[in-house]
Amino acid sequence: MATYKDSGVDIDAGEELIRRIKKPVRSTFNSNVLADIGMFGSFYRAQFKGVRHPVLVSSVDGVGTKLKIAVMMNRHNTVGQDLVNHCVNDILVCGAKPLYFLDYYATGKLSPDTAEQVILGFVKACKENGCALVGGETAEMPGMYGQEDYDIAGTIVGVVDEKKILNGKKVRRGDVLIALPSTGLHTNGFSLARRVLLDKFELDKHRDELGTTLGDALLAVHRSYFRTIYPLLQSAQSKYIHALSHITGGGIEGNTYRVVPRGLKLAVDWNAWKRPQLFQLIQDAGTVPEEDMRRTFNLGLGLIVLADPRGADKLFDILKKKKEKPIIIGEVIKE
């Protein structure tokens, strides 16, 4: 006789996980959430106060092989934050405010302890970004993943007034590139970072040039720019923000070119900022070509504001007052 549990799927573990996370997940709900977790679908009331012509903006993403570092360090409370913040930033640069988030968690053998930590990360970031965690899926798939391995993905839905959509159409020659710092690698470039670092360095050993352990530096949470940028998009200064770029896989140029119209190009001053030591450690350890560094990593910059030169100084000063460390890294020029 063979049972589902004999084949590697433990329904009891799944039920235990749901019991643990129900209360924290509910803490992200607002008055627009109409159903508890556990239903076949999630219900969100489509009422958007102050938005005259609402457009829904959605995005889906994952965390990539940063999860390998989390598993190696047995630290799972930050990768959920990485995922939510990454998704929030992706719709933020379209001008959108996040409404709700759904997650997918897949593993070889479900550990309620590990999964709970990951999901509590979702909860923390959803609350920080003002969005509801309205549902998700947990899949136990022995044979597909190793027993300790897991993967996560997330879908976010936000809203923007149609007249406030940012899609690059306003970008002009002369626009100033104002960059905001990242918190490390964020969620991109980890396959290369792991390849060049893990054979040479220990994750749990303190490194003076990093000011922390290598593992801590690699697991630094992918920051959200929502609290800094969204108020600007709702202010009188929004007229000076022609576009925004979230720096993920593809690097500074690869991502920013998504919002640069044909006939224009970026003139980036690669010496305008000092790269965090983690990127230098990666480049030196693997003798990584400069071109690969630029295409793979954010190099210490996580978001770019393409600003009208008439208001760039004003935006720069506002960002400084918000305790940011903005850097002017170039401009948009004629191709």
What's the quick description here?
The protein is of the alpha+beta class and 335 residues long.
Please describe what this structure looks like.
The structure is a single chain. The chain is globular, with a radius of gyration of 21 Å. About 35% of the residues lie in helices and about 25% in strands. With about 325 residues, it is α+β, with helices and mostly antiparallel strands. The protein has eleven helices and eleven strands. The protein has helices spanning about 10-25, 65-75, 80-90, 110-130, 190-195, 215-220, 225-235, 250-255, 275-285, 290-295, 310-320, and strands at about 55-60, 95-105, 130-140, 150-160, 175-180, 205, 210-215, 240-245, 265-270, 300-305, 325-335.
What is the alpha-carbon Rg in Å?
21 Å
Number of domains: 2
Strand order of the largest sheet: 8-10-5-11-9
Outline the low-pLDDT stretches.
none
End-to-end distance, in Å? 70 Å
- Our estimate of the beta-strand percent is 15-25%
Can you count the beta strands?
A: 11
Oligomer: single chain
Average pLDDT works out at 96
Order of helices and strands: HEHHEHEEEHEEHHEHEHHEHE
The name of the CATH architecture of the largest domain is Alpha-Beta Complex
Number of helices: 11
Helix-strand layout with pairing:
Layout: H1 11-26, E1 54-62, H2 66-73, H3 79-92, E2 97-107, H4 112-129, E3 132-140, E4 150-161, E5 176-181, H5 190-197, E6 206-207, E7 212-213, H6 214-218, H7 226-233, E8 241-246, H8 251-256, E9 264-268, H9 277-286, H10 290-296, E10 301-307, H11 312-321, E11 327-334
Parallel strand pairs: 2-3
Antiparallel strand pairs: 1-4, 2-4, 5-10, 5-11, 6-7, 8-10, 9-11
Helix pairs in contact: 1-4, 3-4, 5-9
